[in-house]
Amino acid sequence: MTREELIEKISAAADVTKSQAGKALSGILEGITESLKDGQKVTLVGFGTFQVNDRKERTGFNPQTKEKLIIPARKAPVFKAGKKLKEIVK
Fold first, then answer.
1. Tens-digit pLDDT profile for residues 31-59
2. 15 exposed, middle or buried (CB, 10 Å; 0-12, 13-18, 19+)?
3. CB atoms near residue 11 (< 10 Å)
4. What is the pTM of this model?
5. CA angle 77, 86, 51 (to 5 degrees)
6. What's the whole-number average pLDDT of the chain?
7. pLDDT of residue 8
8. Which of 2, 12, 52, 73 is most buried, judging by how many CB atoms fall within 10 Å of its CB?
9. Four-point Cα dihedral 75, 77, 79, 80, nearest 10
10. HSE on the CB side for 75, CA within 13 Å?
């Protein structure tokens, strides 16, 4: 599903214009992004949780040259599906 298709679904479900639905979606995504940036986790009960995990430094290799290289530590956004979503997707 594309962003436009999601906006159409929101518009139909909430009985608002596509423009309003687009602004609502942008606001939600911006709020989630800002919270993750600030180190907070975002929980949508029944849907899932967005959070940031720390990944340790590790050793990898270039598959073309077989040369070993160090993959630096970093933070990565993660989504964990909630119980209700898992049951629906079964």
1. 999 999 999 999 999 999 999 999 999 99
2. exposed
3. 18
4. 0.80
5. 15
6. 96
7. 97
8. 52
9. 10
10. 8
Contacts within 8 Å (CB) and 24+ apart, 83-87: 83/46, 84/46, 84/47, 85/46, 85/47, 85/48
- Supply the pLDDT for residue 88: 95
Structure tokens at 44: 């949508």
- Please determine, for residue 90, whether its predicted confidence score (pLDDT) is greater than 90: no
List, as one string, the DSSP characters of 16-63. Answer: --HHHHHHHHHHHHHHHHHHHHTT--EEETTTEEEEEEEE--EEEE-T
**Cβ atoms of residues 52 and 39 within 8 Å:** yes
Is the separation of the CB atoms in 44 and 79 below 8 Å?
Answer: no
In the block, residue with structure tokens 């214009």: 17
Phi and psi torsions of 57, nearest 5°: -65, 140
The CA–CA distances, whole Å, from 68 to 45, 46, 71, 73 equal 43, 43, 10, 16
